[in-house]
Sequence to fold (234 residues):
Amino acid sequence: MGHFNEKRFLLVTLYLLCFIPLAFSQSANAIYLKDGSRIIGHILELDSVGDVKMLTMDGTMVSVPKARVDEINWSYVMKDPGPGAIYRYGDVFRWKYSDTELTDKNYEKYFDDDLYHTYVGGSNQFNLGGACWLYGITCAVLTVLNFDPKADHQSTAFFAYAGGANALICLGCVFTGIGKARLNWVERTFNSVNAADNELSFSTKSKSYMQFGPSVLMTAQRDLGVGATLSFSF
Fold:
């Protein structure tokens, strides 16, 4: 009988545990409901009552009553659903019906150069705005810490941090707003052109309208521009 090596057993166990998240991420389960909808994620528990507890793809924990369940697919394979409708989630996009994030290959395959460059520029501006907000709040905290209520004149550091807080928070508002506008434009443009079965198409299919408004982006360039947008639908 071989000698049991505790250290080797521990190392092998830790090594195998490293692959559990990878395996978990490559598989999925799907619950098909009687109303025709579908929930995709990882089933965690089937309790005694028959309810299904699932961790969805966006990290939400849900409990589905058995009476609503029509079918369960335990080996659901995530497929590329595009080009379906997309929606903005922060600075990235998700497929509307499967609620999964678009991959780099999705962007390259389904976005033309105009959409892709606007997406990249808008995402960078959105993230830059968030960074400005973070540093601005940090400067605001340092401003409070350097405030001396007993002093006739505040220190140079106080005014420096106060000015930095104001400037960075203002820049954060500007960059975040521009980034959101550009990303929202990508969402609307992609859905109206590529997703023939999305809700936007259904809602405007039998309606004719004209929209005119200011624009804070240039759709054919990566840089920021100011102009006007005229949209027709018929």
